[in-house]
From TrEMBL:
GO terms for molecular function: glucarate dehydratase activity; isomerase activity; magnesium ion binding. It catalyses: D-glucarate = 5-dehydro-4-deoxy-D-glucarate + H2O. Pfam families: MR_MLE_C (PF13378), MR_MLE_N (PF02746). The keyword Isomerase applies. PANTHER family: D-GALACTONATE DEHYDRATASE-RELATED, GLUCARATE DEHYDRATASE. This is glucarate dehydratase. It comes from Denitrobaculum tricleocarpae. Keywords: Isomerase.
């Protein structure tokens, strides 16, 4: 079997309402969908975490892989990605991420060729119901293209009401969110109200996207520690500051920056939250997770991904003992997906493994056309828009 073509399609999938994060309003996802075609008629699906990595796939990865064996992952990687020591030293890691998006498709091809789901290629399932958190955030009131009113959770009370609604409608008891307005007292009050409303058994995780200075973080974490916070992602801007903060708080920390050596040396953060393509693909992710296990560091999966990457998360978590914490999700806010029957949505905190060989998902041609047209007409979605200062990027920390 040989690779005959690699097709790259840029898509936008907006949220029903944007949410506030440290850099501004976050309106949705701009991704590149990868289709690796073979002379056997098998097509593998991949997903790049941001659209510009699809440009690298088109210009660099595709020419290198045409005519190659899609089942020979080591050969494919050697044709596309320099040694990690070099890319880490030079900052030229775009090829690693771009190849990681294609590598998902190569695993999908392997599963389809062998008529096996990905989790069986990885050794079998230790679980088939995969946990995810329900997300909350401050979101302005919004109207979709169909006129439907959404969002509007701009007070602690509205955040609490939203989470209670998710529990009532979907059985959600795992919650994670961003309380990002640059106001520490607002965060402290919101966390207190959430714990009082949700009760002692609900999981509450927080993510400040590095909005706090070390001084403010000491204060915030001291005040919320009594409310049994399961994890706080990137409360400050660096591993060194997290290590300093560790002296003042028992709350575990996580990060998106996959620097295991530094985390082990400093003692913080405690866990990594990563996109598989950003790590270089599924094979590299499995190695990274194994290293985390050896070093006592946790791991779970990223959010704001579409159905192809999410399916990869489902299969890998199903096959990996060490990933026990629920992964992040923004599923409830996604207004669509590129896969049939998407987006995935959790019930009673879990999403079940998709059926079928490989990743177990298929593209929805009408959805692909719709979301590609959205990209073509509007360009990629900006995650850095601050209505109070249009055209300017925010600076950290916010407080």
């Amino acid at each position: 079997m040989k690779i005959t073509d690699i097709k790259v399609t840029h898509v936008n999938v907006p949220f029903d309402a944007p949410f506030w994060w440290t850099a501004g309003l976050y309106p949705g996802a701009s991704k590149s969908i990868i289709e690796v075609e073979t002379d056997a008629g098998i097509v593998g699906l991949g997903e790049a975490p941001w659209w510009h990595f699809g440009e690298v796939v088109e210009k660099e990865i595709k020419p290198a892989l045409i005519g190659q064996d899609p089942l020979d992952l080591a050969n494919a990687e050697s044709l596309c990605v320099p040694a990690y020591q070099i890319t880490a030293n030079t900052g030229e890691n775009a090829s690693t991420v771009a190849f990681g998006a294609v590598e998902l498709a190569l695993w999908d091809i392997r599963g389809k060729a062998m008529d096996l789901p990905l989790y069986k290629l990885l050794g079998g399932a230790v679980r088939k119901a995969i946990p995810f958190t329900e997300y909350f955030s401050f979101r302005p009131a919004w109207r979709g293209q169909d006129g439907t009113a959404t969002g509007g959770e701009m007070t602690p009370e509205a955040i609490v009401d939203y989470c209670l609604k998710m529990r009532e409608q979907h059985g959600s008891t795992f919650f994670e969110g961003k309380l990002i307005q640059g106001d520490p007292e607002l965060e402290i009050r919101t966390v207190r109200l959430l714990r009082e409303a949700l009760g002692p058994e609900a999981m509450i995780r927080l993510d400040s996207n590095m909005q706090w200075s070390l001084t403010t973080a000491r204060w915030v974490l001291r005040e919320i520690e009594a409310y049994n916070i399961r994890n706080y992602e990137d409360p400050v801007a660096s591993f060194e500051e997290m290590a300093e903060l560790r002296q003042h708080s028992r709350i575990p920390f996580s990060t998106h920056i996959p620097d295991l050596r530094r985390a082990v040396a400093l003692g913080a953060p405690d866990s990594f939250v990563c996109n598989f393509a950003a790590l270089g693909g599924i094979a590299r992710t499995l190695k990274f997770v194994a290293a985390c296990e050896a070093m006592g560091k946790g791991f779970w999966c990223y959010s704001n991904d579409l159905g192809i990457m999410t399916s990869a998360y489902l299969h890998v978590v199903a096959a990996t003992h060490w990933i026990t914490e629920p992964s992040q999700s923004l599923f409830r806010w996604q207004v669509g997906d590129v896969i049939k029957d998407g987006p995935f949505r959790q019930t009673n905190n879990v999403v079940h493994l998709p059926k079928g060989p490989g990743l177990g998902v298929d593209l929805d041609p009408a959805a692909m056309e719709r979301w590609h047209r959205h990209f073509a007409e509007n360009g990629p979605m900006s995650h850095f828009h601050d209505p109070a200062a249009p055209g300017r990027f925010r600076r950290l920390p916010l407080n």
